[in-house]
Amino acid sequence: MRVYLIRRLLLLIPTLLGITAICFTLIQFVPGGPVEELISRVRAQSSLEGGGGSTAQQQITEEEIENIRAYYGFDKPALTRYWEWLGKVVRFDLGTSYFYEEPVWDVIKSKFPISLFFGLVSFVLSYSICIPLGLYKAMWNRSRFDLLSSIMIFAGYIIPGYALGILLIIFFSGGSYLDWFPLGGIVSEDFESMGFWEGTLDFLHHMSLPLICFMASEFAFLTMLMKNSLLEEIRKEYVRTAMFKGAAFGRAVWKHALRNALIPLATRMSEIFTLMFTSALLIEKVFDIDGMGLLVYNSILSRDYNVVLGVILISSIMALLGRLFSDMLYITIDPRIKFN
Prior knowledge:
72% helix, 340 residues, mainly alpha, 0% strand, single chain
């Protein structure tokens, strides 16, 4: 097992090199770039200050454009820029954002706490509810409770998160019906003057509806995955054998089938390592939340390649570590599993 772990960790390096190289190459073929974006903004500003006209388009000379390219390093070949970027990454430097004009890590760090909150809370709530719910649905398969809960679960799975958010705002945020929750944002305007507990309640009050939208599809998927996985195990011979030997149905399921039924869910648990980068752009737009989804979207629009590459690099590292964590869960759940 130790050899397997060492081999997997060593494989992280060429895998990350491949991911970053492919992404960096694809970026080179995207029309425009940070230099063009900056030139466009300068020309637009000059046009406004000069009252428009063709002379506003001549405010930046070719020499100044070349100086801008040199400042951002775009006067060098793509391969050279890639190796320079890797050299900075080795020194734990993700570069500087072209748009925000701040270190990339500071930009990412300022955005991911709220996304991490949504990801972590939805992860914990989903698993803590879906596993017992799926277990109960499997043990009482085709009962009235199973049928009614399945209708609600599939409704939550079919409705997109942003559409569910719009419906929740209409019904519960002062739309046409109730006014129980705020329209958007993460805190109230007077949040700074609140005490600890009052501020905590205010934050949770704002986060309730967005959290439901983040959880909806994953909640439905995990519940049905748990139910179907357990039903498959219940039908196997070893469960019948345990019941023939005198074990009650519930005990046979709890002691023998449940452990094996959890193996498919272990794969999804690897996502805990990428929670801070898990976000939904449209949900953030609906509830006016400035998280990782909007950061990546705005970075792509503004051609802020350093931020895009920084997010890709960190999320790739966490995803690969998550897969390794998933393998460890397999062994914990079923010690018979061996990795060579």
